[in-house]
Amino acid sequence: MTDLGPVTWPPAPIRTERLVLREPEARDRAAVIELFASPEVGSFVGGPRPRAEIERAMPGAPGRRPGRFVVDLDGAMIGEVTLTRDTERLRPAAAGKVDLGYLFLPRAWGHGYAAEACAAVLGWFAGALPGEPVVLHTQTANVRSMRLAAKLGFTEVERFHAWDAEQWLGIRLPGTRNAGQAVEPGPGGM
Ligand SMILES: CC(C)(COP(=O)(O)OP(=O)(O)OC[C@H]1O[C@@H](n2cnc3c(N)ncnc32)[C@H](O)[C@@H]1OP(=O)(O)O)[C@@H](O)C(=O)NCCC(=O)NCCS
């Protein structure tokens, strides 16, 4: 039993048309540091962290945990997609549910990689724990993230104010299709 629930972890790497979703490895360390230190990436998620602080906190390989997928394009990490069981959120509608998160390096934005990776992760999750909804938090000012959430089939539960910004809580019910997709992908990829 993992924090996510009774899922087998890690799954075999998930292959999509252009990407591989897999556990973090030591060779991803530089890209993970770049991701968390990037001012653009941090704009709507609490701001970038000082590079030295990230390096100190991650002396070796990036941490592995159930639900943390590195997104690999041609052998190099371009971002990460996470599923985290929500145990701390203050919003009752999200409590206890699995929350989707996504962070991509700015040079990988605008190619549909985040949508492709998230759809595959949601497909894996639907196969691993059928019948469970997934929630998503994002700032409403995060236009790219709001567009991605809609594309993935999340619908609004509520907007609320926290961390000095308007926040959006969305939910994706079991059986939801991604925009433009005929059927929910099965476990193991699209
Ligand atoms: C949120 C985030 C992941 C969105 O990334 P993104 O690249 O815009 O998202 P998508 O993968 O859906 O790509 C969509 C874009 O790719 C374009 N695109 C190009 N080729 C494409 C293809 N083959 N297939 C699909 N879309 C394609 C789309 O037209 C769209 O472009 P547009 O935004 O100019 O309209 C990214 O901005 C990010 O990492 N932000 C920082 C972290 C963050 O804020 N996370 C949210 C908190 S959970």
Automatic annotation (TrEMBL):
One of its GO terms (molecular function) is acyltransferase activity, transferring groups other than amino-acyl groups. PROSITE patterns: GNAT. The keyword Transferase applies. It comes from the Bacteria. Gene3D superfamilies: 3.40.630.30. Residues 19-174 form the N-acetyltransferase domain. This is GNAT family N-acetyltransferase. InterPro entries: Acyl_CoA_acyltransferase, GNAT_dom, N-acetyltransferase. Keywords: Transferase. The lineage of its organism: Bacteria, Bacillati, Actinomycetota, Actinomycetes, Kitasatosporales.
